[in-house]
Amino acid sequence: MSASQIPPGNAANSMAATTHKRRLWPKHLHLIREEPFFLLMAIFIGILSGLAVVCFRITYLSVRTYLLSTSLSPSRSHLLLVPSLTGIVIALLVIYVFPRVRGSGVNQTKAALYIYNGHIPFRTVIGKFICSALAIGSGQSLGPEDPSLQIGAGIASLLGEKLQLSRERLRLIAPVGAAAGLAAAFNAPISAVLFVIEEVIGRWSAGVLGAVVLAAVSSVVVMRFFLGSDPLFRVPPVGPVNPGELLAYAVLGVVGGIASVVFVKMITYFRLHLKNAPAWTQHFQPAVAGLLIGFIGYLGFPQVMGAGYAYMDQAMHSQYTWEVLGILAGLKILATTISFVSGTPGGMFAPTLFIGAMLGGSVGALERQLLPHFSGPIGAYCLVGMGTLFAGFIRAPMTSVFMVLEVSGDYTIILPVIISNAIAYVISRAAQPVPIFDMLSRQSGLDLPSMEEQREQPLLHVEDAMRAPRTPLLTGEEPVKMALRELEQSTEPLLLFRSPDGLWRGVTRKKLAELADQGDAELPLKHAAGHNSLAPLLHPDHSLDTALRHIYDWPLLPVVHRADPTQLQGVISLPDILSAYRRAAGVPGS
Amino acid sequence: MRPLFLAVVLVISIVFGAVTVFAARFYRSKQLQLGAIWYGRGQAALTAGDSHAAVQDFRNALYYSHDNPAYRLSLAEALLSARHIPEAHSYLVTLWQDEPSNSTVNLQLARLAAGQGNAQAALRYYHGAIYGLWPDGDAAARRRQTRLELVHYLLGLRDATQADAELIALTSELPRTAAAHLEVGQLFQQAADSERALQEFEEALRLNPKSPVALLGAGEAAFQLARYENARRYLEQAFKSGPRDPQAAELLATTRLVLEWDPNSQGVSSWRRALRIVQAFQQARRRLQDCAAARNIDLAAASAHPSSTMPSNAASASNETSHNLVAEILGRIRHGETATPEQIPMVLDPAELQQLYQQAAEVQPRVRAAKLERDPQLAESVMGLVSRIETVTAQHCGAPQGADLALLLLAHRTEER
Predict the structure, then answer these.
(1) Contacts A160 to B, Cβ<8 Å
(2) Is a pLDDT exceeding 80 seen at residue A196?
(3) Which domains does chain A carry?
(4) Stated pTM of the model
């Protein structure tokens, strides 16, 4: 009863109403429905994640300016000293202060979703912020997107816990924050939403999608408010693609696929070996990684240090020859492997884009050299290359396509992107069945669900389990005793008949026996069956999950034609369903 | 619990937002400052002629402010100086995509396209520059300068028609200075638009009546327009007010010769006119005989063609080609060249010369001053024959000199009219 329903005029009643009102208002607000409240929270998560990512970006860029140089080409002494000395600091922080900041933010968010009921320790968020900023700023070959994703997820997790959301919501709130963090880091909300849906949550539902979209959009709005709406790199005009050029993009797909496989193999191989190395070596691994990467810069390739967006911009504007681009791609694979396997916090999104851009540019520049009047701008190849590596290495095919479209804002590139990404994805899957994030989580001892495996799992339908009925199909005009006789002669748990109105009905053996005992043995089945005899309708394309929902009440279900519900296609029972699952699982004798 | 916490979240968001505003502003100002420092270094390097260092400095500037169009444009210009053409092109195209009406970007793209031999793109970008926006002020002068650059480019491509159209557009934007009109007059002359060239030289002379270059240009333009009286006047003034130019002197000598031989000169009496026609006829006959002798052609041999005092179709057709020949002669005069044996064309058809000789022989008895004075039709017919002889002999035996050159130029003027 609400306060407005209390009759006025009576003082006692009025006081009571006031007291009641005071007592009730928090309860009223508590009754805010979970769904809209969750969406409101998503906006707050987006805003806070956006602010955090802005601060993170400012921090790692400032660290770079103050530690390395204000120039794109730091001095040789800085190249050697800064990454290695900072590596020691990072190692000490990771070992003694923030032990959980190692590893992929994507996997930690997935772990929060599937294992820890949405919990991400806030200390990890702070650790990720500090350590990743130091690592990227000092020149380690890592990207800011993965830490941003985890920072967003951590903020969301903290808010969800403090608000005492339901377990289901609490689990989902970390991916919502992850989408916000990634969207702000990439300045690309669509790609972030797709990535989180495709790689973290793995399912589309209106409630989750709405929250993820709201969080991503609000974080991007915040980020653009503070740092402007310009993309991370300038994309030169792409223009229409010559149909003959698609062959070159197919070649790029092959090259990108092979490079992805090499990149995955190197990371998984060296990471496993370094994990098994003596514990004391962890104190030096980031420093040694920094020294090696600094040495690559010392040799004349400082482009491989840090996230590398400025150099992607330069590659897109045809700064490098195809040989240099190829070398940069190779060195970046090496540098990122060294940085990542050393346990230095940081992400692999930006390095993946860097490698893709350089490989794409290399293929484009080589094609231009061989067929000068045939090829398009190098920038287009760099852009497609980014998507190709993303599809091959991260194994997020949808995200890779939309990311290129969102970053370039040019729809004309869609065909090369699809061709190249599809080829790279197929090659990567063939050569490396387990995606990189799943490999990393398994190496860490976590058995997180693989979204790719889930996508690939065959979905069983009713048509895979249905069979012909073992009793004759009755019309409802037959007497109860005849129906009982038919049923007793078969093994079916239920007798199905089509009543004159065309609907399928069913009666159990028990019900028929009761009718016979009551003296209704001569009564036509249609009158004897009763109103609750109407069977739920199943169609052959329904999932077996739908059938299972009814199987307890209806041990035998009719499967009817979608266009003509009076036409029976078959029947399905629990043993049929179980048999279908056993067949799909390859159980012998099923 | 929830409303309270929502309020707390709101407060945290506001505080966090305020801190971020402060941090972002500090960061942004630092970025802009660093960008400006590197940009300044780049400009200094570019001024010092070290385009490679400038490229590096501008890249650093762009790292801090990668959306700054001025930095990007400077980088593109430095890249052009350092001959990093594909990269410069890429940056310019990106800039153009952002600001298609930016005249500086269009101009750089036009120069690039011109350098790459892509005339169509160059013309499009030049027009983009001319009709676009000049961000750094003095738009009128920059626009004029760009159009002049385009005219030079078109003249380099030998596209006189398009160059002439651009020059016509340019005349409406010219400042009232003798130098500007003089420059445009010379360009009109190069675009073979002598009429407008003369107008521009005369305009320059109104502003600076003693300009020897304008006088010389006006003289040449008048000469090309076959306005020999004007040409003589301008050329004589040019000699009075400036140093003697050997080519101009030859042009003046030719002009005087033309005026001496021209039977239709102003102030010439009918008797004197008739005498000039007789003189011209005799000169043309000599030219015909000399030409035939040089080519070993027997003029007395019977011609297969019927003789006629009227202009023949063949002669009319040959007049078409005589235009080119006259233009060539004018060019030679301007550039101080003389006909060399290599430049003398091959003999075309001896019968043509034989036919002209026959016609000359037929008309010779009537070529008397008294008769010509009385019979204007005859005078005209004789001058027509003289013109054809000079034109055909020029085709057979190369460019004439002296009196024959004057007669050829008179023949050309008659055709023009």
Answers:
(1) none
(2) yes
(3) 1-29 (no CATH), 30-227 (1.10.3080.10), 243-454 (1.10.3080.10), 462-585 (3.10.580.10)
(4) 0.70
